[in-house]
Design brief:
The protein is of the alpha/beta class. Helix content is about 35%, strand content about 25%. The protein has helices spanning about 15-30, 45-55, 70-80, 100-105, 165-170, 180-190, 210-215, 220-235, 240-250; strands at about 5-15, 35-40, 60-65, 85-90, 95, 115-125, 130-140, 160-165, 195-210. Strands 1, 2, 3, 4, 5, 6, 7, 8 and 9 form a nine-stranded mixed sheet that branches. The model is unreliable at about 210-220 (pLDDT under 50).
Length: about 260
Amino acid sequence: MNKTPLFSIVVTTHKRPQTLTRALRSLLAQTFTDFEIVLVTDEGSLETKEAAARLLREDDIFLVLPHVKGPAESRNAGVYHARGSYILYLDDDDSFRESYLADIADTVGFRSDAVNYVNYTQLKELRSPQEIQTISSTEMHLGDTEIGSLLVCNFIPNNAIILPAAMARMHRVDANLNSHEDWDYLLSLVLKHDFNHLNISGPVVHINEGESRNNDAKASGSIALDFLSIYRKWPIPDDTIKARRKDMLRQLGFDLPQELL
């Protein structure tokens, strides 16, 4: 590659060649072409390598890192090797609309000194080895949610942010967390940088309803403990935020004194 691409799209994958193929094809279909793909896998399966061989271009990057601890370290490695001016993330089961990168490049309100975030499409589907069946599609508009809400719960998927590469390298995804590493990453950003909403949509977050039904069986107490661990990692002195955190935990079935949050 003779010049620095405008965008580096860090794609992390783990043994999902069917949806990885869809994700990569959505990138190759982009009408704006000044970008590179940085594909990172934490396993070395033949199916993943075959998908990469079919779909990655000459100047794209493919990292096979079987020693890393899941998607957190995979994303960190992808950012480290990325050459673009701005970083975007894409999970292997999600996709981008074909005009997404062009819309970012054409948006007047884009800021080079902030974390830009966009609206997205939530698409529910049922997956099988033979086919993927769409159930419903909902447009998620994020501009009306005040950014301070991130201190209470997450509302921005990692696929919906665009940030300067230098900023991305200052913040690592925490590989020691058992869950909510995406939210934790956003908290590390929102406490130090401005967030700038762009009123465009492009990321498509695909939700496998079969997996969702299994996830619903988890005890609410487990979810509450996950939230509590995040709250304690990122303490906020503001009493209003503490009250909102207390209310969130109460909704999850876990009541604590506000002063502990």
